[in-house]
Write a structure and sequence with these properties.
Order of helices and strands: HEEHHHHHH
Distance between the termini: 18 Å
Number of strands: 2
Helix content: 55-70%
CATH topology: Lysozyme
CATH class: Mainly Alpha
CATH architecture: Orthogonal Bundle
Largest sheet: 2 strands, antiparallel
Low-confidence stretches: 37-51
Number of helices: 7
Strand content: 5-15%
Shape: globular
Structural class: mainly alpha
Radius of gyration: 15 Å
Mean pLDDT: 81
Length: about 150
């Protein structure tokens, strides 16, 4: 993916994860941005329009984290680079949420085979998909069609 695709990914993550993003320190005391950091209690009373800080430092941390996740994903799935940029962004977004190692085998198999309907279905029935149906629906449609979410 080129820098423009990372800009799109960054905007996509902020748009779809704004309620869940937070800064925290990882076990090595590095400050990172992540979705659902360990121990974070997200209240269902959090307003849907709550925005994560978009100051340059936070965005730099988030982009760095997304690039690290993309690298980890490529280590485990070398073929990810052959996917179109939209589907790469979906995979990176999901791996950012749940970790590369938690992507389900059936989902990965469907992606590697180019079975986009099956991959989208696996996304929707997963625990990850049930956690935030709006996010899952948007990303599943992107996986299914290879097109950016509407309005982007």
């Amino acid at each position: 993916m080129d820098d423009r695709d990372y800009e799109k990914l960054l905007a996509q993550v902020v748009r779809l994860e704004r309620r869940w993003l937070d800064l925290y320190c990882d076990p090595a005391s590095n400050l990172i941005v992540a979705a659902d950091p360990p121990g974070k209690q997200v209240s269902t009373a959090d307003p849907p329009g709550k925005q994560v800080s978009t100051d340059p430092n936070t965005m730099t941390l988030l982009e760095s984290r997304l690039r690290r996740v993309a690298s980890d994903l490529e280590d485990i799935l070398p073929d990810v680079g052959r996917l179109d940029a939209v589907r790469q962004r979906v995979l990176i977004h999901m791996a950012f949420n749940m970790g590369v190692e938690r992507l389900r085998a059936r989902f990965i198999s469907a992606v590697q085979s180019g079975f986009w309907e099956a991959a989208a279905h696996e996304m929707m029935i997963s625990d990850w998909g049930k956690h935030d149906k709006r996010r899952a629906s948007v990303l599943a449609e992107m996986m299914r069609t290879g097109r950016d979410e509407p309005g982007v």
